[in-house]
């Protein structure tokens, strides 16, 4: 073999051995991937675009990248997730990011020599947003109410309450009747409401992200009318002037009044009756009363929240008045006679009978029982005799002066033929 050809062949051999050695050396020097630690930026707000890079720091070749969310591999088809891969790095993009993206994200790099992985937590922050705000409350004295005010956000917003004063607008709860279970409670309990609970309130939510949010509501304390008990004076006589006052001792105004007699609304139709009203008082006035004014009188007080009523009985006392008086009687021995005395009055008059003879007066109760019928208002003599002739007197008395009397005579003219 010529020397020149031999030298050329040796050179080619040495070149191949050098290339092979370089390849072997590169293979021997290659190792498993090593990921450079990464983390998400702080203060990531919901709705923004977020990205993080997973970079292989070693001289690894032919690296495959996979991403996991809370241990579950991420698919490239997910709505707001994108993955961009290169030989030495992979980028995860979330656009837009939301609270549901809060999770542990893991990047895994793999080649034929092994794998490495690193995990970082994504904490998305969101300002407070109302989930539930309170509405205005209308309550009655003594009620207990619970008010709810709730907000979403990340971190979870703190809820606190204020009662706004007329001047400072900063009055914070200080009484035991206005209770919040703890600083972050979203419920406010108002127990046994009084007038002091009325006013403007504010619910505030904050979590340190952007601005606080506020919601105002009013507590309106209503009070049903309550009438102070009343009654008519006693011993009201015919012709007297009578008045009674219906006073609402508690109740939200405006208040309207109605009067009823025996269940029927009173309509002022003459000068003998009048009603005078003021914001919390109604006076019923009766002029020159008679027994026709007897009855059960009811005052009804109403406001926008309800009503109350109270009743009282008026009983007029009236002296006796004749309804029927007996006439003189002319009869014969043996006949039957009847005489009646009937009187009105309040209370009902009692009738007593007397016989007047020879300047002497005798009660018929002390005489023959045949004089009296079943009723004191009637006397009956079944068979008259000469001894029954004379003057009789009936008296009607009920304790109200004056009592009244009526006389009649019984004249006997012989026997019936």
UniProtKB/TrEMBL annotation:
Q: Which GO terms describe its cellular component?
A: axon; neuronal cell body; plasma membrane
* Keyword terms: Disulfide bond, Immunoglobulin domain, Signal
Q: Which GO BP terms sit in this record?
A: homophilic cell adhesion via plasma membrane adhesion molecules; synapse organization
Q: Which GO terms describe its molecular function?
A: axon guidance receptor activity
Q: Which SMART domains match?
A: IG, IGc2
The organism's superkingdom is given as Eukaryota
Q: Per its UniProt record, what Gene3D superfamilies does this chain match?
A: Immunoglobulins
Which InterPro entries did the record assign? Cell_Adh-Cytoskel_Orgn, Ig-like_dom, Ig-like_dom_sf, Ig-like_fold, Ig_I-set, Ig_sub, Ig_sub2
**Pfam families noted in UniProt:** I-set (PF07679), Ig_3 (PF13927)
Asked if the record carries the keyword Disulfide bond, the reply is: yes
**Ranges where the Ig-like domain occurs:** 33-123, 128-220, 225-315, 320-411
Q: Which PROSITE patterns match?
A: IG_LIKE
Signal peptide segment: 1-30
Question: Has keyword Signal?
Answer: yes
Q: What is this protein called?
A: Titin
